[in-house]
Amino acid sequence: MDDDYLEQVLDLVAAVPAGRAVTYGSVAEVLRDRLGRGGPRQVGQVLAHAGGGVPWWRVVDAAGSPPARHATEALDRLRAEGTPLVADGTRVALRRALWWPEDDALDDAAEPR
User: Fold this and answer.
1) Distance (Å, whole) CA 10 – CA 12
2) Fewer beta carbons within 10 Å, N or C terminal of the chain?
3) Which CATH architecture best describes the domain 3-108?
4) What is the pLDDT of residue 113?
5) pTM here?
6) Minimal CA–CA distance to 25: which of 5, 39, 13?
7) b/e burial code for range 17-52 (CB count within 10 A of at least 16 → b)
């Protein structure tokens, strides 16, 4: 995985506002349109290895579930931010919380640091 892809994943995740969430697949789709490569697993790899400085807990799977190994911490952070969760509190309520980057977030993600 190259540094450009890594930086753009981190920039895009950093743009997700508190109280909202994005899926691994959504991040991958945006960057695939931009860079022509990458997928949800690559986004997860970036966050697992270099995502400590961005709000990694705002990135969930297609069902709204946070990373299994960090679910308790992620859900605590999401609750603290007021992110809508499903009734049992185990997943993000994506219909209400899903965020999609506006063009300015895409532009910011495309600019070199």
Assistant:
1) 5
2) C
3) Orthogonal Bundle (1.10)
4) 42
5) 0.88
6) 39
7) eeebbbbbebbbbbbeebeeebebebbbbbbeebbe
